[in-house]
Amino acid sequence: MSKKVTMQQIADYLGVSKFVVSKALSGKDGVSPATKERVIQAASQLGYFAQRGAAARQEKPGQLPAGGSKPSVLVLMPNIRFQTKESVYWGRILDGISIRLEERGYGMVIISEHSIDGLLHVLNPNGLLGMIGVGEISTSLLLEVHRCGLPMVLIDHEDPLIPSDTVFVNNYDCMYKLTQYLIGIGHRDLLFAGNIRFSRSFFDRWNGFRGALETHGIPLRDDHLISLEGISGYSGQFVDWASRCRAEGKLPSAVVCANDSIAIDALQAFAELGLSVPGALSLCGFDDIEDAQRVRPALTTVHVPKLALGRKAVDRLLERVASPGEPHEKILISGEMVYRESSRDTNGRKRS
Question: What UniProt keywords are attached to this protein's entry (predicted)?
């Protein structure tokens, strides 16, 4: 058995004091963000987090009770990037979690805090079975949950420093298939719209788009990516981009968006400029939110089984609690192509 990694070993590795390491790992003030990040990275590299989680799981948090009432599951969904119960995307994932927990007879505690202090104020690990994280969650918050010994499963997010099970839709393969469909109906000048630094899912979707271009021998150019800024309200950026492209005679035949909300903003912008979809160019989204079918023309997109993501996260958490020593898993759930009126082949025939 390998020797236990101590805070002193981490301190010696970094050339700092044990006091600094202790503060950084406990989330307390008095350590700069840069130093805290160095400590967390070193602790991860040395295997400190893995052993802490294993030790903590021998205690009360994260244990299936022998009898009596079952504990609740903490659902952490920080109120950032519109990650709320009212969201047409995140809200449906939360519904899936709630349905599965109710089927299994467990309670649910939803926390929307995005600061360590707020989380510590409400977190009582002794009454919790584990944690399911929904969407992007900061490393500091995940570290606090990990320190408490709670098993965790993350949905649509992963942290390179904190060991956990994760559940994603198969973003790469789905976007690859969507892009390949467009290429198959004649499109050769395609662009991807989205901020690929926004989330791991967006980055994987961009790579799926790139992969399809490379497979079909379409050279990747810098302008294949419409890099958007901010987290919402992209129509103005699309107006500027499309106006410039039209003036230069460089409008693409198809635009593939990182999600449906971006595609709907693009649809609004193109309408303002008198660019018809799919007449002037085809347009596709991703996620299949309810508005994707309501807009006109309805969006070609990828259906993400949002309820299934939530249910699968609950199942994986219960498996983790029952078998804490098993390797962590990254679970990919397949999405489905949804062909609607916003795309057509290059001969003008609509594909719906």
Answer: DNA-binding, Repressor, Transcription, Transcription regulation
Among 296, 175, 292, 193, smallest CA distance to 239 is for: 193
What confidence tens digit (pLDDT) does each residue in 63-109 have? 554 445 567 899 998 866 666 777 888 999 999 999 999 999 999 98
For 119-184, the DSSP string reads HHHH--GGGEEEEEEES---HHHHHHHHHTT--EEEES---SSS--EEEEE-HHHHHHHHHHHHHH
Instruction: Of 31, 22, 328, 38, give the one whose Cα is nearest residue 147.
Output: 22
Q: What is the pLDDT of residues 182-205, one digit of tens each?
A: 999 999 999 999 999 988 999 999
Q: What pTM did the predictor assign?
A: 0.80
- Angle of helix 18-26 versus helix 33-46 axis, rounded to 10: 90
Query: Rounded to an integer, what distance in angstroms lies between the CA atom of residue 224 and that of residue 188?
Result: 11
Q: Could you tell me the two tokens for 130?
A: 């584990």
